[in-house]
């Protein structure tokens, strides 16, 4: 340690240090606590009027999705204001779902960690003030020291070289911040997909309810015909019993469909953070929305926009910084410091009767520390991080392959559902005509009740197949947008401009 002593230091230096300390602490706490709130929830606390205005503005941009009046089984709020189509439900979920706020807090936390790591580049200022009482004062240079001493000191230290550990630590904190922001986007995309899937399943269930109601009405009408024929002796009692059994089965199917509707509505209420005591009206219909992207376009968008791909890329970079942090142990640590100390019998620590002049001193020094040998600890830690870096790279390559498979499989599901829509539409038309003919033949007494019930069963199956194909197609579109890392609240291509998500790295 290099020491430089000076005998006469005036009180001006003490005053300068105290003023400098006060200004430094005042500016630090003013910036840290006055200008930087911990969490900003202004977007999540929009009033009802602003929320409605925003919704109407975004609604004008929607395309290819036409909401219709829901069936009578839909709940309507007693307040008459809680009505949601798919787009508005997605926007509310992104504002009100607790998981979104949790990810926002995590992203804000990572930003504060980055700022904390950045502070390691600057000097460290410390100060101390104390009082010491000595039972047996020492004699130094023939002069007895005071038995009661007040001491004040100030120190400024600066890290000059730490084997690049400081730089690597800051870069790692930056990468962790970017990864946390991408994780928030990943959560948003998954939340959008959950809302859309439940919405589409709700529409599918409502179509099933409508189909079950129509089926029940047809079977009840057929039961009346069978009873009338039985009363006049034109049909056996067996026909009536068969009709009654089918009516009971249709009623059971209708009850199950209504129960499924209630369950899906409860799930949507949860995703939108709506009180379970409130009743809301979810409106919309199943429709075949266009999906204009090819396999190559889907893959290009997925690799460029998916948050998990971005997170995997950052994980490789973070592993690289961890490796450099481990390698910093091979290098010396160089620091410099300047300190000043004064002492005295008074609270001002400005000398005493025994020592009226030489009561303060300062020193400036530079120091290098180097752990030359630690039985391989630094080396093996470095090798460990190198293997972990390779692991992160392999996981990134694996994710790249999984993304390609996911995109291709979901695109195949979309194409299959599109073909099923055309086929099931034709089958539904034929099933309706077959039922009409079977019913007419039965009333003309040229067909049995079995023929009518068989035609009715095929008609119900055709309706269910068509509804399922429409729902599966829309769900496949939602899955593809999520697989590409895009946010389309109402499944139309135009709404991506509302919630863009792109990574430039």
From TrEMBL:
InterPro entries: OMP_efflux (IPR003423), TolC-like (IPR051906). Keywords: Cell outer membrane, Membrane, Transmembrane, Transmembrane beta strand, Transmembrane helix, Transport. Signal peptide: none annotated. Its main location: membrane. It is found in: Cell outer membrane. GO terms for molecular function: efflux transmembrane transporter activity; porin activity. GO terms for cellular component: cell outer membrane; efflux pump complex. The keyword ATP-binding does not apply. Belongs to the outer membrane factor (OMF) (TC 1.B.17) family. This is Outer membrane protein. It comes from Desulfovibrio litoralis DSM 11393. The lineage of its organism: Bacteria, Pseudomonadati, Thermodesulfobacteriota, Desulfovibrionia, Desulfovibrionales.
């Amino acid at each position: 340690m290099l020491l430089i002593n000076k005998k006469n230091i005036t009180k001006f230096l003490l005053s300068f240090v105290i003023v400098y300390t006060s200004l430094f602490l005042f500016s630090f706490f003013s910036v840290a606590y006055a200008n930087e709130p911990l969490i900003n929830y202004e977007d999540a606390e929009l009033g009802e009027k602003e929320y409605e205005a925003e919704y109407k503005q975004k609604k004008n941009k929607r395309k290819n999705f036409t909401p219709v009046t829901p069936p009578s089984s839909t709940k309507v709020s007693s307040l008459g204001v809680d009505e949601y189509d798919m787009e508005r439900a997605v926007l509310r979920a992104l504002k009100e779902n607790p998981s979104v706020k949790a990810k926002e807090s995590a992203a804000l936390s990572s930003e504060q960690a980055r700022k904390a790591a950045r502070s390691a580049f600057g000097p460290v200022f410390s100060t101390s003030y104390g009082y010491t009482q000595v039972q047996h004062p020492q004699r130094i240079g023939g002069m007895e020291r005071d038995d009661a001493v007040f001491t004040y000191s100030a120190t400024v230290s600066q890290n000059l070289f730490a084997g690049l550990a400081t730089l690597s630590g800051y870069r790692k904190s930056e990468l962790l911040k970017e990864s946390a922001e991408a994780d928030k986007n990943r959560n948003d995309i998954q939340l959008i997909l959950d809302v859309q899937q439940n919405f589409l399943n709700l529409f599918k269930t409502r179509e099933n309810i409508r189909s079950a109601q129509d089926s029940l009405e047809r079977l009840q009408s057929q039961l009346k015909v069978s009873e009338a024929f039985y009363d006049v002796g034109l049909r056996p009692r067996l026909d009536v019993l068969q009709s009654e059994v089918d009516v009971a089965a249709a009623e059971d199917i209708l009850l199950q469909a209504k129960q499924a509707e209630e369950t899906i509505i409860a799930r949507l209420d949860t995703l939108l953070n709506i009180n379970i005591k409130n009743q809301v009206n979810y409106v919309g219909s199943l429709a075949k929305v266009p999906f204009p992207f090819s396999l190559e376009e889907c893959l290009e968008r997925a690799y460029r926009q998916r948050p998990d791909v971005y997170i995997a890329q950052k994980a490789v970079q973070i592993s690289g910084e961890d490796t450099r942090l481990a390698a910093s142990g091979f290098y010396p640590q160089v620091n410099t410091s300047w300190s000043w100390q004064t002492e005295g019998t008074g609270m001002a620590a400005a000398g005493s009767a025994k020592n009226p002049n030489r009561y303060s001193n300062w020193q400036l020094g530079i120091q290098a520390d180097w752990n030359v040998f630690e039985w391989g600890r630094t080396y093996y830690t470095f090798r460990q991080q190198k293997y972990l870096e390779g692991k992160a790279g392999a996981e990134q390559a694996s994710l790249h392959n999984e993304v390609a498979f996911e995109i291709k499989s979901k695109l195949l599901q979309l194409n299959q559902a599109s073909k099923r829509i055309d086929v099931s539409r034709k089958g539904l038309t034929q099933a309706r005509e077959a039922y009409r003919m079977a019913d007419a033949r039965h009333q003309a007494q040229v067909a049995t009740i079995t023929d009518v019930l068989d035609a009715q069963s095929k008609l119900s199956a055709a309706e269910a197949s068509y509804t399922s194909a429409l729902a599966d197609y829309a769900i496949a579109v939602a899955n593809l947008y999520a697989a590409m890392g895009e946010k389309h609240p109402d499944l139309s291509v135009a709404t991506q401009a509302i919630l863009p998500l792109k990574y430039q790295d």
